[in-house]
Specification:
Layout lengths: L1 E7 L3 E8 L1 H18 L12 H8 L1 H23 L5 E7 L2 H7 L6 E8 L13 E5 L6 H13 L2 E5 L9 E11 L5 E16 L9 H5 L7 E7 L13 E15 L5 H7 L5 H35 L6 H21 L13 H29 L5 H15 L6 H23 L2 E5 L10 H12 L1
Parallel strand pairs: 5-11
Antiparallel strand pairs: 1-2, 2-4, 3-4, 6-10, 7-8, 7-10, 9-10
Helix pairs in contact: 1-3, 3-4, 7-8, 8-10, 8-12, 9-10, 10-12, 11-12
Length: about 450
């Protein structure tokens, strides 16, 4: 077997493999003998089928295909081992398998090419003395008050209201049904999956589809009302995305929240603190620490962004496809945690678009990982064993008895601590300028999206 090697783009190695006539003939004969021993042909005992009968019944193309497959499996593995190539993932064959079978002659040499994905080479450019700008995150006293207010809301008691109509922040109990619009823009067919009985809806800004909150406000108990609602264009259910429907709401009951007092009893109920003042001081310390951690995270992200701009890496498709798979898996897990139906998004027809959208993030994540690993190795940065053991024990406690693979857990934490230590080293060896946070438009609240989903799937 003769092997010629060449470097290809996208972190691939090309191999031209030439199989001698002798090996080709031997492989073909071996396949014929194996088929003769195992073929079940009426009128003949196994192992006693004449060669011509076997080829006639099995078909010459089928026999050739089996021989070519045997040649490929043995020769590709041998060529990769012979050339000492660290292959990853699958390889591509040229010409195609079908064409190889068509042109295959057992007594003739067989030549083909394969392209093999290999781990990429990372050639580091400048990574010391980087000039970095990152936003500084500040502690806001309102964070403590907002946290306590949210906890008050969680512990609030719903009390029926009988002497007024629905107001903002009330909770209403409704029956509802949605209808498609007909050609005249009037109420058409009912949408079977958009029905609810005794559904609880919070009349809070950001938690309902646009138009629904405005329509429900000022309704009275016993009132029935039609509300036109247009679903967002990016709504996860394609059959509803961008479409206008008519919801018919029957408001059955209005309830308002009675909040608990912010006193020492409240502090004991939601924390291990004895007084409300102790709780406020503890929360302030936590939010200040969180602001420092968020600032560090922004610095690290700015460093990673600069490093990926400075470093050219040819990534193998195998790495990219695997990272896309990881991203989509994480997305599915997050949807399940929020109680959303994964199947509404991960439909077969949606997968190509989902993979395309995830590709830029996948490429960025892989580059960041490879660059940090290379800097870690170059600078000889290591993780202290005591720090590793401590973190492992912390994570095991957080898992709270849930099953885990110990070796994988340790490996994951080892990588996490190593990356963090290298990023801290890069920060110490960079010129970091902290700037005030930029004013950005409000982002969509994940919890609000969840409530919106519940309202339309109850």
């Amino acid at each position: 077997m003769k092997v010629t090697q060449e470097k290809l783009p996208s972190s691939q190695i090309g191999l031209k493999i030439e199989i001698s006539p002798e090996i080709s003939k031997q492989t073909y004969e071996k396949v014929v003998q194996n088929l003769s021993r195992t073929a079940n042909i009426p009128g003949f005992r196994k192992g006693k089928v004449p060669r011509q009968i076997l080829l006639q019944r099995m078909g010459i193309e089928r026999v050739k295909a089996a021989a070519v497959e045997d040649v490929l499996q043995s020769s590709v593995d041998a060529a990769i081992k012979q050339e000492d190539i660290k292959a990853i993932g699958n390889y591509q064959i040229e010409p195609s398998f079908e064409e190889l079978v068509k042109n295959y002659q057992p007594e003739q040499p067989l030549s083909f090419r394969i392209a093999v994905d290999v781990p990429p080479t990372v050639v580091l450019s400048q990574y010391r003395n980087l000039a970095i700008k990152a936003e500084e995150v500040f502690f806001d006293e309102n964070q403590v008050e907002n946290y306590l207010a949210a906890k008050q809301t969680e512990l609030a008691t719903l009390v029926p209201v009988e002497d007024r109509s629905a107001q903002a922040n009330d909770t209403v109990i409704v029956d509802y049904e949605a209808f498609k619009l007909d050609a005249n823009g009037l109420k058409g067919d009912s949408i079977e999956e958009l029905k609810g009985v005794d559904s609880k809806i919070e009349l809070t800004e950001g938690k309902l589809l646009a138009g629904m909150l405005e329509g429900l406000l000022d309704m009275s108990s016993g009132e029935v009302k039609d509300i036109n609602v247009t679903f967002p264009a990016d709504y996860p259910r394609p059959e509803l995305a961008g479409n206008e429907v008519i919801f018919v709401f029957n408001l059955k009951e209005i309830k308002t929240s009675e909040l608990p007092d912010l006193d020492d009893e409240f502090a004991k109920e939601i924390s291990d603190k004895e007084t409300i003042e102790e709780l406020k001081l503890s929360l302030e310390e936590d939010f200040k620490k969180k602001a420092e951690e968020d600032t560090t995270e922004k610095i690290h992200l700015a460093i990673l962004e600069q490093l990926t701009k400075n470093t050219e890496i040819e990534l193998p498709e195998t790495y990219i496809e695997q990272e896309i798979k990881n991203i989509l898996t994480q997305t599915a897990m997050q949807m399940e945690q929020y109680g959303l139906d994964v199947n509404t998004l991960f439909r077969e027809e949606n997968l190509p678009k989902l993979k395309e959208n995830a590709r830029p993030d996948a490429i960025q994540k892989i580059k960041e990982k490879l660059i940090i690993e290379e800097i870690t190795k170059t600078e000889g940065i290591t993780v202290d064993k005591d720090a590793l053991d401590k973190r492992v024990e912390e994570v095991k406690k957080e898992l709270d008895g849930r099953p885990y693979d110990n070796d994988r857990l340790i490996g994951f934490i080892q990588e996490e601590l190593s990356n963090r230590k290298t990023l801290d080293w890069l920060r110490e060896n960079s010129q970091v300028e902290l700037v005030a946070p930029s004013s950005e438009p409000a982002t969509v609240d994940v919890e609000a999206t969840e409530v919106s989903e519940e309202t339309t799937e109850a």
